Amino acid sequence: MLIDIQEANAKALAAIQAAQPIIKGIDTAINVVPGMKKNLILHAGPPITWAKMSGPLKGAVIGGLIYEGLAANPAEAEKLAASSQIEYSPWHEHDGVGPMAGVATASMPVWIVENKTNGRKTFCTLNEGLGKVLRYGAFSDEVITRLKWMEKTLAPVLKAAIPLAAEINLKNMIAQALQMGDEVHNRNKAATSMLIRELAAAITKTSFSQEEKARVLEFMHSNDHFFLNLSMPAAKVMLQAAEWIEGSTIVTTMCRNGTEFGIRVAGLKDRWFTGPAQIVQGLLFPGFEEKDCNPDIGDSAITETCGLGGFSMAAAPAIVKFVGGTVSDAMNFTRKMYEITDGESQSFQIPAMDFRGSPTGINLLKVCEKNILPQINTGIAHKDAGVGQVGAGLVNPPMKCFEDALEAYVEKYCQN
Amino acid sequence: MVVCHLIRKQTYFDSVTLMLIGSQVKKLDGIENAVVGMCTDYNIDSLKRLNMYQPEFDGLTPNDLIICIMGKDKATAESGIAEVEKRLKSRKQASGASAELPPATQEEAARRLPEANVVLISVPGEYAAREAAQALNNGRHVMLFSDNVSIEEELELKTLGVSKELLVMGPDCGTAIINGTPLAFANAVRSGDIGLVAASGTGLQEVTSTIHRLGCGISQAIGVGGRDLSEKIGGRMTIMATRALAADPATRVIVMISKPPAEKVLKPLFAEFKNIGKPVVVYFIGADPKMIEEQGFVAARNLEDAAIQACRLSNKKQHNPEMADSEIKKLADKVKLPAASLRGLYSGGTLCDEAQRLLQPVIGEIFSNTPVKGCKEMPDVYKSSGHCIIDLGDDNFTRGKAHPMIDPDYRSERLVQEFADPSVGIICFDVVLGYGSHPDMAGEMVGAIERGRKKSGRNPVLAACICGTEEDPQGWQQQKARLAEAGVSVFPTNVAMVKFVQHCLERK
Amino acid sequence: MSKLVSFFGQKVKVINLGIPSFAEDLKKQGVEVMHTEWRPPAGGNKKIQALLAKVEAWQSKVKAGKGAR
What we know:
Helix content of chain C: 55-70%
Order of helices and strands of chain C: HEHEH
Largest interface: B-C, 63 and 39 residues
Oligomer: heterotrimer
Distance between the termini of chain C: 29 Å
């Protein structure tokens, strides 16, 4: 095979840079998510079996089965979850992403994000809010009730409002948010505010009751991270444009399921490279200790994969308070990421770095050569299902993922 | 004794920095031993040998830093660790003061300084060739300070370099002065029309410094590494450098310094020299000068002579050694040796060889750890007996320690040891100044001398040569004054010092 | 030798890989130098270094093949 890696990567980067993610709409998962089935549970991270799942993911599965009406109570749900009747598949293999446990079932409403440049779509559930929620493994009545409300009220109201508002270009919104102190992984406040602003008038124009519209607005307002479930599929649809360019060493997926960390590389179609999910180092909320923490979990690392989140820490220096760092540390984390990326974002510019574009296009070869791992900042889940977030901090993928990917790459391309 | 340790994973420092810090901390009160290094096989062996290995070190990689201190008690050992950390931190801050993180690769460095035209490489040998090849492929000259580069790699690099008219100075090249810029261990020498090509670092330092002190100057001082004139490498770099100096309008005299080339290389080399069209001074260390003169070139008899001959050809004036033989003899006549044996403690290998060569015919049996023809192997390199002329830069003495031109510790210790030997009548040593060298070697040696005198109550005769110039950071005169104050007879060249030593020994 | 001879007239600008004091000394003399905090590639991991070398070798072949065209 005669492939010039620089050319292949340039092609991949160009495709990523050219992507224009917009909010296309909302629909039920079974209607729009490729391969969705009644007995299929989508989850965050690389493939995993029930037996290997950590606390929060198991809890979320139980909650999902109850919500979907496949089990009447937690005990039944657990039995069903362990049986062969339920199938599990990574969100990433169905053109989507999910934060934390990332569990999605057939009846859940999902955002539809479209890349106007190539017409492809990605999906993500709507963000439930903070505290005891499904994505942290909670499955109480309160959780199910909320999920039902989201299905029956939140989603329909937003679905109706979207066509009544101007088209929302998520790339532009994220670019603006980056200049307002967000990095759209752990800091989403500005982006969430902008989203509500774009949709508010349209929401009032829909034909739902005053009370329903008010509740929808209050719901979004009460959750700073509402936008995360849009920044993630936006990042995914951008990176998807580079899949699966022959010979390219650009990393298109980084994700975790609470047990394993998984990556995928543009030139290695459909292949997962996994290693143990790491323990996040950071600040724990009062009363919690390291032994309470679940290993790294969630598809939200897709933001870092696309140059946002931890890669754009210089745009959101407050993040480093979680690790007792300084503003200068935040800048240095971003700077370090330029060493392992092939380009700089033409859209996502960081004011504190003189509007330099964020580090974009993680190059597998550079990660291995320089022994520098991508930097992720993320929330920490309690290892027991349903307790919720116990802190936030910094984490890296295990080097094993990149080493295995490099080995596979050499086997595929360099044997002659 | 208590051993405490600290592991810093994925934290890399170069070995010289670490060894220096270890060496400094070891001197603190109550500290018996300090090992500060990356977790390489070599350091693991050292730790085990010193009974300092900890089970926590299992599974560490060469990218993990180990700080291991043996102290008289726990508090002392822990304070040793804190001291190491403090010094490492200040090292990091010194380089990290600017807004940007320093580059971690040659590629990134080149991106930030695209006009760079020389890459100075002192990374571990196993990685050096790759970096050198990258530099050459990017059109940059290479100074390869690193050793432990294979001869096959050297051949590949020099073939590549010659094909692109790029210099490959090394491997194991410690000295070069290119376009007026001293690189690695080199002296501040004025500009002039003498161009030098050398396969010896300290040899080049000695000759260039002497040229400066004699009032002349240099155009280029090109190091080619010790193996360039071997049969396998065939003198590739020497020949390219010589051709360039021949064509260089700023160069009017050429000086060649090296060990005698391999037989097969000699003929083509002489043919090259004949084509130069400019006067050539050749010093093949230890070779018969007649062999060179027969070819029509000026043969130097020693390093000092190489400089004198070059200056004579440069400004057409007669030059004499800075110290006349009669002056040296007069000084020798004034001193009385308390005992019969000589100890020469050298940091420069070429100077050590030169001393042996000059004294071998005249003072009887000479031992060395790096004996030249006619001299004998020391039975125990750590304990001198009889006349010993020792190269302290040799591998035996630099395991886990920086070179004696940077780290004076072992030579100071050895000086004190020689003082205590009642058979020792005279001790001589070289002080090499210039960039890269210790900021005050004279001061260090004086300290050792005072300790030696105090501890032993003895007073052997002391002689030193200072290889350097007044423009060097250390200042030639200042270094001389420091030594002279302590009762050391100071000489401008190794040759002069060795003449003094010879006279002293002959007098006894 | 004209290329090398013309280099003799230029200001030396250095990339330093390894011992920091070499770069510090050059800075003291006012020479432009870019010091690199060099680390062994792939964190010293020999297996990864070998894999990367294979990729590099492959790419050299690919680029050479293109040049020939």
